[in-house]
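Progress against Task 2.4 (sequence-to-structure conversion) is shown through the following example record, which the project officer requested during the mid-term review.
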Amino acid sequence: MADRRPRRRSPGEADPPGMAPRRAALRLLDAILRRGDPLDVAMHAAAQGLTGPDRAFAVAIASEALRWMVDIDALIDGATAQILPDDVKSRAVLRIALAQLLVLKSPGHAVVSTALPLVDGGPRRLVHAILSRAQQDEWQLPERATLPLPAAERWAEQWGLPAVEAAEASWSAPPPIDLSFAVEPGADEWPDALSLAPRHRRLPRGQAVEAMPGYSEGGWWVQDLAASLPARLLGAGEGRTVLDLCAAPGGKTMQLAAAGWDVVAVDSSAKRLERLRANMERTGLSADVVQGDIRSWAPDGQVDAVLLDAPCSATGIFRRHPDVLHRIEPRQIEEMAALQTELLARAARWVKPGGTLIYATCSLEQAEGEDQVSTFLDHHAGWTVEPARADELAEAVTPDSNGFIRTLPGVLADAGGLDGFFVARLRAPSN
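Structure tokens generated for the chain above:
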């Protein structure tokens, strides 16, 4: 009988084809799970020197390994006599290999041949045996990707089990592409797109954004429908001035400029502001762009409106960023909530009497939404909630009993879902 044991590579032997994106995906997982780096931050170091397609493949491997990690780990643990520690390389290699086999449907021979060199002195025979068994036994993942337990428990307590089940369903596949438009497209434009709100279209995932009609002309930009809701609550600008705080990469800035506001866009990150400026140049829209930390920066005077899209845990954008639920713990949520309280109080000083303050976070944590506004109102006499109206929003998005916008998992599920957002419109006292 032929020897089916994996062959050891000779020193200096060249890697098999396709190793570069797999090595990058392994580095991505390490940076996210061990150091707690966000996926987009980790990519700067992990994907150095990769071509565009290899970079995209590395992100796809890492993203699907994270999205399905709870279920992939269950398969790994069911196939070993002893549980592999979370931090050993062989588990990480199996995670990205099984993500390729079971989610991305990569050819089995390519997955095995590129997985074994990644073990790097570890149990190659074990990794080979598990991947062989996965193919021979035709392993399958469940219909819904299981949420990491800490997030599932938090959300069950805050929103109930149906929200957790809806989150698992929405997390099980990358979301569609949403486009915001400077002006409403004509009736014969984008015939295959779904219209869920004015100046918004939804398209199936899988298209290269830069190759889509009108990209170079700048009539639209990528922006989840939920992320467009805060700026919608400010309506037409009619030349009035708005501060867009924590503005980069610029989706809300472009919305406000297109709606006739005189926009001052402020962000502390020079790199993110480069993206904002590029977006403004492509779309032909204009704003006064300022680099500044709003904990120390201040405008020259009060303005008609302020939109604070506050830094947050970002647990609401878990569909697009599956790393977030593996990184965020209660400590980070508490830290972000303390920062939000500080920024909200500071932003309120810059609103003219009778003016509007929009507070928004892409979080599914009450500590970063409802609790923030409650604390703010307790400490700022005369400020009131101006309830959102259904006609200002989008299909299937309705204000809650307090007039806040809270998009939970399950909203628009049949049409591709929404990111998790909290939005409140606050009115300054008129005196």
